[in-house]
Design a protein that fits this description.
single chain; 276 residues; alpha/beta; 4-stranded mixed sheet; two-stranded parallel ribbon; 8 strands; elongated; disordered N terminus
């Protein structure tokens, strides 16, 4: 489960296509706040919003106290790796027996680092929500517009609130949105919205709690794998487990060297070394 959550967290960066329509900003968003939890809504939805907000507060209160601190530590880790990219790459190259990191290894590390910095800087605010009317949302999506944090299925003509981010295509380090989107369908009981909100919030919170040590590790892991494939060049039908193990080991040691013991120990929980 932890591995799935980490992969889901890593994959939550979704780049907007170059020819996509811009996010449509609707006017007159209103906001109410209770116990540090904010909920935005549109005119005509105030009654629903005022019923929903106390339920969101209850759900947020169930989140472990340490979770809100995790994104800040994650940003520190990712920013440190980005600032020490040369040292990180040389460390891994030396472990692979290389005099210096190759071009693809360097480019991969650089690209992964930028993506992860965008993810860390744009983490969803787990106490900030935007309530969408389902019919309004569908109208926007059917017309080719985008809604922050919403996935639209054209074949089924349905949309789903997600915990993904839309990144600016021209500047992939700038996220558009940091709110958690919720959808309200007037044809369904409010409890459906509450249950959906609980699933999104708790999935995100668990991913943050179990995933903050793995994101730096993913940078090391993919860069090390690129080094083995393109620079060490082990070409054999029997290479899989050897290369996988070496890649994991190099990434593990780099995480310990550059991120620290706490993230390293959480990494052990995530990776399940016993399988090797």
């Amino acid at each position: 489960m932890k591995k799935i959550l980490c992969i889901a967290l890593f994959m939550m960066v979704i780049c907007a296509a170059a020819d996509a329509q811009p996010v449509i900003a609707l006017p007159d968003w209103q906001v109410i706040v209770e116990a540090g939890v904010s909920l935005e809504y549109q005119p005509g939805m105030e009654a629903v919003a005022r019923q929903l907000l106390p339920e969101l507060v209850k759900i947020v209160d169930e989140i472990p106290d340490e979770v809100p601190l995790i994104p800040r530590q994650q940003r520190i880790n990712i920013e440190y790796i980005g600032a020490h990219q040369t040292e990180c790459l040389q460390y891994m190259a030396s472990m692979l027996g290389l005099e210096k990191p190759g071009i693809k290894m360097t480019d991969t590390f650089d690209g992964m680092s930028k993506i992860q910095q965008a993810v860390a800087a744009g983490e969803l605010n787990i106490r900030s929500f935007r309530l969408w009317d389902y019919a309004t949302m569908l109208r926007i999506l059917r017309s080719g517009g985008l809604v922050e944090g919403i996935t639209y299925n054209k074949e089924t003509d349905s949309c789903t609130a997600t915990i993904s981010m839309l990144l600016n295509n021209e500047n992939p380090t700038t996220p558009y949105s940091s709110q958690i989107p919720l959808r309200y369908n007037r044809d369904e009981p409010l409890q459906s919205t509450i249950e959906s909100a609980r699933r999104i919030i708790m999935t995100y919170a668990e991913a943050m709690y179990t995933g903050w040590g793995e994101q730096p590790y993913m940078i090391f892991l993919i860069a090390a794998g690129m080094g083995i494939n393109n620079d060490v060049k082990i070409d054999s039908a029997f290479r899989r487990w050897f290369c996988d193990g070496v890649t994991q080991y190099v990434a593990e040691q780099a995480a310990l060297q550059f991120v620290g013991q706490d993230a390293y120990e959480r990494l052990q929980e995530f990776c399940d070394p016993e399988q090797y």
